[in-house]
């Protein structure tokens, strides 16, 4: 695997992805400009009174990903 394949999105790129999700539009990879694939991720503990819903967005081309808290629209 090349070093650039392991690279993460920078904060500005993450903001573009997050804003697209918040607006209800299809998020595109800021580097490859292809539609990202979303996978929901559950979390938290229902017995403790909270349960986080997160969205994992993956670029099918460069394999970079971003993880956001659905309710807050923030990274992890």
Short summary of the structure?
The chain has helices spanning 3-6, 11-22, and strands at 37-41, 54-58, 65-69, 74-75.
Q: Could you list some keywords that capture this structure?
A:
single chain, 76 residues, alpha+beta, 4-stranded antiparallel beta sheet, 4 strands, globular
What does this structure look like?
The protein is an alpha+beta fold and 76 residues long. The protein has one domain. 21% of the residues lie in helices and 22% in strands. The chain contains two helices and four strands. It has helices spanning 3-6, 11-22, and strands spanning 37-41, 54-58, 65-69, 74-75. The chain has a four-stranded antiparallel beta sheet with strand order 1-2-3-4, with helices on one face. A hairpin with a 4-residue loop joins β3 and β4 (74-75). It is globular. The mean pLDDT is 79.
Q: Which descriptor suits the 3D outline? A: globular
Strand content: 15-25%
Q: How many structural domains can be distinguished in the coordinates?
A: 1
CA-based gyration radius: 13 Å
Average pLDDT works out at: 79
Decide which structural class fits the backbone. Answer: alpha+beta
> How are strands sequenced across the largest beta sheet?
1-2-3-4
Largest sheet: 4 strands, antiparallel
> Percentage of helical residues?
10-25%
DSSP helical segment count: 2
Helix/strand order, N-terminal first = HHEEEE
